[in-house]
Amino acid sequence: MRTNIVIDDTLLDEAFKVSDARTKKDLIHEALRTLIKLKKRKDLTELAGKIDFYPNFDHKALRKLRG
Questions:
Q1: Measured between alpha carbons, how far is 17 from 6 in angstroms, rounded to an integer?
Q2: How many whole angstroms from its chain centre is CA 51?
Q3: Helical H runs in 1-67?
Q4: Is 0.85 surpassed by the pTM of this model?
Q5: Over the stretch 6-58, which tens digit does the pLDDT of each residue have?
Q6: CB within 10 Å: which end of the chain, N or C, has fewer?
Q7: How many domains does the chain fold into?
Q8: Residue 4 in domain
């Protein structure tokens, strides 16, 4: 879809600095994909009190396995 918008030059320059995108089109597509991914990510605070651990779960033993 073709759309004309006014983009803040400072934001555009900063976005190019943190992205590998070479064109404005690629940069906007990357930004949209990133926004979608972030918005779909589950907020971990919503899971508080909803996760049941195994009765004998030993989180310290799990740390030892990681090294």
A1: 19
A2: 23
A3: 9-17, 24-40, 59-66
A4: no
A5: 999 999 999 999 999 999 999 999 999 999 999 888 777 888 888 887 888 88
A6: N
A7: 1
A8: no
